TrEMBL record:
Residues 428-467 form the Mechanosensitive ion channel MscS C-terminal domain. This is MscS Mechanosensitive ion channel. Keywords: Cell membrane, Membrane, Transmembrane, Transmembrane helix. One of its GO terms (biological process) is transmembrane transport. InterPro entries: LSM_dom_sf, MS_channel_C, MscS-like_channel, MscS_beta-dom_sf, MscS_channel_2nd, MscS_channel_C_sf, MscS_channel_CS, MscS_channel_TM-2. It comes from Crocosphaera watsonii WH 8501. The keyword Membrane applies. It is a multi-pass membrane protein. It is found in: Cell membrane. Belongs to the MscS (TC 1.A.23) family.
Length: 473
């Protein structure tokens, strides 16, 4: 018994890698701001919130002044004393901000922007500190914790609802739009099962499906990241840890730790390189697709030649583009000479088989002993040639099963091409006849049936022979 089985396409792990790269590159600007080598200013922070910035003063750098002030603020909040009182001592050479009548910070001329006085800057900082300290003290009360927990639960619930709604939109509207068309609603050429020009192919539908799924996953990831970041900002303790983790992440990503040649590179540099290479591959695919669909189609070349030309252009563009990207990345290519030599020898030994199939594919495509749509017999298989690429050839057998054969198989062994030069072929069809049958009537009936078939030619006319008598035991 013969059954028909529709094979399912499985999305490759390429989705996972693409998603990871896109997520890293999308949030690189948020998590990894480029820090300057010298910091002219440093932030005064309270419970993870930046209040204002100070500059260097005399022998003290901006960072030293900020660290001392931030440590003082932390001690005031952790002490549990009555509400802090912020004041200004104007009896000194420069205004001095005090907290609970103790020195906190001096306002210097370097801290004052153009057009503002020392006293005005001190008053502005005093008001900012009063509001921030009052808010920080309130955030340590039980009332605030209950309110923050309720808000956090609501945010998680809202994120879950949005994520679920995106899944509903995907299942109801987006996924059906990217479903691979069936044979019943997609016109195909008479010589093969390939879709006619102008109709999307199965690979393009699969690419759309993967792209939409990646986009859905990225949006869901952004929703949950925003939700957790917002929740972490609600609680002072978690906010401190998140700021510490963010600072460690920044330092680890921008520190040059990987020596290559005469330079050192950071993890962020490698992420930028990955982003450039991904952009190069994406741009190459787009240009190759336009070249194939617009320019090569107008030349009248066969589909196999078009595919090969587009593929050669694709690899050449990627190779040259990679060299340009590495130059833009400020990489000394001479430092990779030894590595490239060793890699070239290893790849050459390991890819001999692939190189053989590649050359065989070029021979098949340009000499054209077989073409798409030909009915061939090779290695005990009979079927129609569906696709010829530079590495393999796809044949669809009479059982509608796709068989992928290496191109070298068509050059190393005998191939019967029933469609080569002429689509006319003689078929031998054995027919059993019962004993005692009138052979003349059988002959006339067989010839009549053959002539009534639309694919049977009148010249040469069909013939019937009775070559032997078969005795069945």
């Amino acid at each position: 018994m013969y059954v028909w089985n529709k094979k399912q396409n499985v999305i490759s792990p390429f989705l996972v890698w693409l998603l990871a790269i896109l997520m890293i590159l999308s949030f690189m600007g948020f998590f990894c701001p480029i820090l300057a080598q010298e910091k002219p200013t440093a932030p005064i922070m309270l419970e993870g919130r930046t209040l204002f910035y100070v500059r260097e003063s005399g022998q003290y750098t901006a960072e030293q002044r900020a660290n001392e002030a931030n440590r003082h603020l932390g001690k005031i909040l952790d002490s549990g004393d009555p509400p802090a009182v912020v004041g200004i001592d104007s009896g000194q050479e420069v205004p001095v901000i005090t907290i609970n009548n103790r020195y906190f910070l001096s306002v210097t001329y370097n801290d004052v922007p153009m057009g503002k006085s020392l006293q005005g800057q001190a008053l502005a900082w005093k008001n900012t500190l009063e509001v921030a300290i009052s808010k920080a003290e309130y955030e340590r009360t039980l009332k605030y914790y209950i309110k923050a927990i309720i808000i956090a639960i609501a945010v998680i619930f809202l994120a879950a609802i949005l994520s679920w709604k995106l899944g509903v939109i995907w299942q109801r509207w987006l996924k059906p739009l990217s479903t691979t068309p069936t044979d019943s609603n997609t016109p195909t050429s008479s010589s093969s099962s390939q879709p006619l020009s102008g109709y999307p192919s199965e690979s393009s539908f699969k690419f759309q499906l993967v792209a939409l799924l990646v986009l859905l996953t990225i949006i869901r990831g952004i929703i949950w990241i925003v939700a957790f970041v917002y929740i972490s900002r609600l609680f002072p303790q978690i906010r401190r840890w998140s700021d510490l983790i963010l600072e460690i992440l920044q330092i680890s990503l921008i520190t040059d730790v990987f020596p290559l040649g005469n330079q050192k590179y950071s993890v962020l540099d490698f992420f930028i390189l990955i982003g450039l290479l991904v952009g190069l591959v994406t741009l190459t695919r787009m240009v190759s697709r336009v070249l194939k669909s617009k320019l090569l189609t107008a030349t009248g070349l066969s589909r196999a030649v078009q595919d090969t030309t587009a593929l050669i252009f694709n690899y050449t563009f990627i190779f040259l583009g990679t060299i340009v990207v590495l130059q833009v990345w400020v990489l000394d290519l001479s430092s990779l000479t030894v590595f490239a030599s060793v890699l070239g020898v290893g790849v050459g030994l390991g890819l001999q088989g692939i190189a053989k199939e590649f050359v065989s594919g070029l021979v098949l495509i340009f000499e054209r002993p077989i073409q798409v749509g030909d009915f061939v017999e090779v290695a005990g298989l009979m079927g129609t040639v569906e696709r010829i690429s530079v590495r393999s050839t796809e044949i669809r057998t009479l059982d509608q099963v796709s068989v992928i054969l290496p191109n070298s198989r068509f050059l190393d062994s005998e191939v019967i091409n029933w469609s080569h030069s002429s689509p006319i072929s003689r078929l031998k069809i054995p027919v059993g006849v019962a004993y005692g049958s009138n052979l003349e009537i059988v002959r006339n009936l067989l010839i009549k049936v053959a002539k009534n078939h639309q694919d049977i030619l009148s010249m040469p006319s069909p013939q019937v022979f009775f070559p032997s008598l078969v005795i069945v035991p």
